[in-house]
Specification:
single chain, alpha/beta, 60s Ribosomal Protein L30, Chain: A, 2 domains, 7-stranded parallel beta sheet, 35% helix, 21% strand
Length: 241
Amino acid sequence: MFHSKKNIIAGRNPIIEALQNAQSLDKILMFKNASGEVIQQIRLLAQTAQVPIQYVPNEKLNSLTNINHQGVIAFKSSVRYLDLQEVIDFTVGKGETPLFVMLDGVTDVRNIGAIARTALCSGAQALIIPDKGVGALNEDAMKSSAGALEHIQICRVGSLLKAIDTLHLNGIQVFTSEMKAATKVFELPLAAPCCIVMGNEEKGVQPYISKAADQHFTIPMLGSFDSLNVSVACGIILYEA
């Protein structure tokens, strides 16, 4: 089934133009055997813009559009992605204390939408997401967020570890949840500049991300259950801030 022309950009030069004009793109699908100078230019521009490229068979591209795609298709983003350092500078410049949320492997778009909605309502200024391994900010996510994804600042980064380094360089602490952590969520210094990392719905925060964090915490729970939906957990944490 073909996608709407409003949602895709097909062809090499149109995609180069979109990347050069800093148009927000969700991802690029590229024929796995595509080559040449123009293709290399697209790769370099996409890398700079932190737009993920997925390599696919030509049949996949043909199934998405009847436009002459020349082996490459880009999907327009529903949101505008911002540079993390610029968001930090903007937040501090307004006299606000940074309160950010980082998503590590959260794949359910409804949870992402709910997190964005809660983050915006609780006063968090930004979401930080990786360019791979996270649910797409598509129409379902937009609906779940009740429009919050259009209003909260969103930073897409190529590496969560590098993003954590940037946060640390700006005096922003990073907190992650851990079931056996000694610190309870209400004991965290959430009034200070901080970023809360929310992990995958089943696996939690990746070990190397957890290792880079400044402090680990747990949400006390009664009864036999030992886990919460990630968007619910995020809401509990943010309203402690």
